[in-house]
Amino acid sequence: MGENLQEEKAKQPPSREHLPRHIGFIMDGNGRWARQRGLPREMGHKSGAEAFRRIVRYCQEIGIPTITAYAFSTENWKRPKHEVDALMDLLGEYLADLSRFQKENVRLLVLGDVAPLREDLRASIIRAEEGSRNNTGMTVNIALNYGGRDEIVHAARKLAEACLRGEMAPEDIDEAALSGSLYTAGQPDPDVIIRPSGEMRLSNFLSWQSAYAELIFMRVLWPDFTPQHLNYALHQYAGRSRRFGGV
Ligand code: IPE
Ligand code: IPE
Ligand code: MG
Asked: Is the pTM of this model over 0.85?
């Protein structure tokens, strides 16, 4: 923590062969950003949404194939209704902009339990996912009503149902079967998870998939997160020695 953007490292990303294939972003600190300015929390979320658009474009520019952004957790329903509504409105706006995904060649996927979401939002999700399915520029996963534990529970149920139908036996359940039943089925695990705002926890983000992710915590608040911050984090990542239990 304590990133110094004056360093050379913030100016350019590392070379391509040192870049992660999948980055997870915990977009945190919107509320504190707003409070520091005497603004309502909703304004922090609006500004955070702009930071997100900026980062998607930059990731594509430098050649990151997949990102996952934590937008709303299964625990975030505890917030005041007006804040939850504002977050859903912002997500709705983002998801409804199918022309942007086409223009940017982005394949959009939503990770999470969409059943409890507003009808209009669910419709936008289906349209965005189906409309962007064949885009090849990069994959953008939005974790929305996402919880790592909730995801594992859903996967366990799917596998149990397959066993009951006689399609598989309990002893066929292995890591690959469980991975393949998660919202991220078929996608690579995140190589690195970046959390701004100074908090040093995962808050139920990609619990299964993060088993060997490099974790990078930064002080910057998400609305202030720029490509320079990302370059800085990517250099940290490039300097880590990933052993996966080996030597
Ligand atoms: C992250 O910012 C956005 C969501 C959790 C939806 P916060 O709203 O958590 O911002 P802080 O942590 O209160 O500053
Ligand atoms: C995590 O942030 C969820 C998102 C960024 C969407 P929170 O602000 O909800 O996490 P905690 O409560 O600080 O752990
Ligand atoms: Mg927070």
From this structure: yes
